Amino acid sequence: MSITPTPPSTAEDVLLEIRDLDVLYLGTEDSANVKACSDINLAVRRGEILGIAGESASGKSTLLNAMTRLQQAPAVTSRGSVIFHEHPGADGVDLVGCDDRAMQRFRWSDISIVMQSAMACLNPVIRLRDQFFDVLRAHDRSLGRARLQDRAAELLQMVGIMPDALNKYPHELSGGMRQRALIALSLACDPDLIVMDEPTTAVDVVMQRQILNQILRLQQELGFAVVFVTHDLSLLLEMADRIAIMYGGRIVEVADGSTISENPQHPYTRGLREAFPSLVSERGKRHGIPGSPPDLRRLPSGCAFNPRCTEAIELCSQVRPELTVLPDSIAACHVRRMEADDIAAHTILEEAR
Ligand SMILES: Nc1ncnc2c1ncn2[C@@H]1O[C@H](COP(=O)(O)OP(=O)(O)OP(=O)(O)O)[C@@H](O)[C@H]1O
């Protein structure tokens, strides 16, 4: 049985719920299907920053594309739902069942997306002004030209870009400016959720820092929720309220940022934590995780991480661990669950004495 790893504190908190989601890449006559996401259960709360981290090929982008309905063939959502709650406490809409027309209603005004490459998202042959006007108009046909101009300029200023950039084509801007312009565009219709897939990977570290600070400031001012996908755990440790760790297409741990930073439970999270020391901590020695991520076509039996895990016991290669509620975290690890059970049994004995 799988559990929902992020039980909301109240139902009103929840903006988006991913339930029992499986995503396949359909094979051809010569190749089998690849299950890139299995049994994903995750909730995004209003106004939080939820990070999703994991090594390359762990299924992060596949999950993000499925939850925003941006996925393209051969990817298909073969099971599960993605429930979006437009208003606090309102019944949700299952985005998996929405057709493209219905999805249009949610794009930009409820959910917007910032991808790794702004160049791939912005139209290279259209000036920024018209791209901003198009998005703003699509959601409010009554906006006149003067209001459109003011709003587009205001949005660019929010990310530190002078309004005269509206006259430019995307290729006339630096990489960092393009990425910030895309973030400004994502804010155009006051969305409740912005989904970001490695939004700072393509820029240098100085620009990366500026962009992250801007995202944090805007998020605090405007109150939108963020789902931030990256392979770089140190980024998330600085900014995320909660972090979900993916391995081999599954979520293996979900906890507050402080727990993932100071007391991660899953051996894989511990390995990632060692490999990516916090950006703000003193420089320490990095220790990579031995071995490589699994081939999703040939996942090891039991826990997919067991061949790389220094704590693995026999059970780990035999039975896949389910996500279990531990004192500070939710993690899929037999060893941690047994330790927690031992502590609980010991406490009961002590109390009975
Ligand atoms: N078009 C495709 N056809 C078949 N398999 C695919 C396709 N795209 C991705 N995959 C497989 O799905 C798995 C998950 O890929 P995904 O891109 O979601 O991982 P990721 O965690 O986002 O990795 P990265 O950090 O490198 O972007 C990988 O094993 C990949 O080979």
TrEMBL record:
Listed SUPFAM superfamilies: P-loop containing nucleoside triphosphate hydrolases
Entries under PROSITE patterns matching the protein: ABC_TRANSPORTER_1, ABC_TRANSPORTER_2
Domain ABC transporter, residue spans: 18-273
GO molecular function term, any single one: ATP hydrolysis activity
The keyword ATP-binding is assigned to this record: yes
Keywords, comma-separated and alphabetical: ATP-binding, Nucleotide-binding, Transport
GO biological process: peptide transport
Pfam hit, one: oligo_HPY
Family: Belongs to the ABC transporter superfamily.
Name of this chain's protein: Dipeptide/oligopeptide/nickel ABC transporter ATP-binding protein
Source organism per UniProt: Brachybacterium vulturis
